[in-house]
Every structure is written in C-alpha cells, then in structure tokens.
Amino acid sequence: RTIRELVFNVLMWGALGSWLYFGVFGGYTMHLQLTGKVDLVTILEQSEPARWHRLLWGILLSALAISLTIAGGLSVVQTSSVLVPVPILIMYILLPISLVRWLRQN
Question: CA-CA distance, 71 to 47, in Å (whole number)?
C-alpha cells in the first residue's frame, strides 16, 4: 500500500463508520429521550469528571506516547497501535452478545 491509499482508506472508512455509528445510536438515543424512557440530558449534565482526573489521564497518555517514541521510534509506535486494539476488539465482539442477552431478559 502507498501512503496515499492508507490515508484515503482511513479517512473514507473511518468517516463512513462514524457516520453509521452516530446515525444509528444517535437516533436511538434521541428516541429514548423523546419518549421519556431515559432522561439522557440530565445524565450527561451530571457526569463531568473531576479536573484532577482529566489532568491525570492527559499526563499519562502524553507520557505513554513520548516513552514509546523514545524507546524505539516509529516502529514501536506502529506495533503498539496494532496490538493495543486487540482487547478492545474482543470487547466489541462481546458487547452485541451481551446486548442481545439483556434485551431478551427484558
């Protein structure tokens, strides 16, 4: 692959995936709010994390990126960007299964 193909694919498929995700779940969220099943506006207003918590995560993520770059340069960053999403991928597989089980119970 060329860099041009990679950038095009990331932009195209990333934008399409985001569009679909927010279209489906945003519409469902709007439906829940409008029907009065869940008051999402109140939930979102009350869920502001503490300032120290946001600062801690900002510092930790910055330190991680800097240490990966210092440790091995771009190859380490590339390898970690491929390996880190594997647990998240497993979670994305388990989430729909959990959702279906939960919906069947209710």
Answer: 36
